[in-house]
Amino acid sequence: MHTLRCPPLVLAILCAALAACSKSESPTAPVVTTFDVYTPGNTFSPFSLRVTRGSTVRFNIYGENHNVIFGRSTSGAPTDINVVKYVVVSRQFSAAGSFSYSCTVHPGMTGEIVVM
Known about the structure:
CATH topology: Immunoglobulin-like
CATH class: Mainly Beta
Number of strands: 8
Shape: globular
Order of helices and strands: HEEEEEEEE
CATH architecture: Sandwich
Number of helices: 1
Distance between the termini: 63 Å
Radius of gyration: 26 Å
Strand order of the largest sheet: 2-8-7-4-5
Number of domains: 1
């Protein structure tokens, strides 16, 4: 009976190659970034944003007094923004879902953030 002998260095290289081949690719994490919403007049611009979980939205409130009141139909909505003027207020969106918001100072001034 004939046995095959493998030098230790060759064996180590083969083990490393097999380990590298057997590693599964981990899914890439979603890109977390910052987005801006502006208040030109009595509208939110853009009206709708699609963001990834963990992203930050900056509300650039200029011109008139505005607030940002989030609907509570989806759990995980960030805290509301009280009436302010000439300020940038950030909110982070940690939960997936659709978050509608409005300015109660100006009826009809609405927007939404969709978190994927």
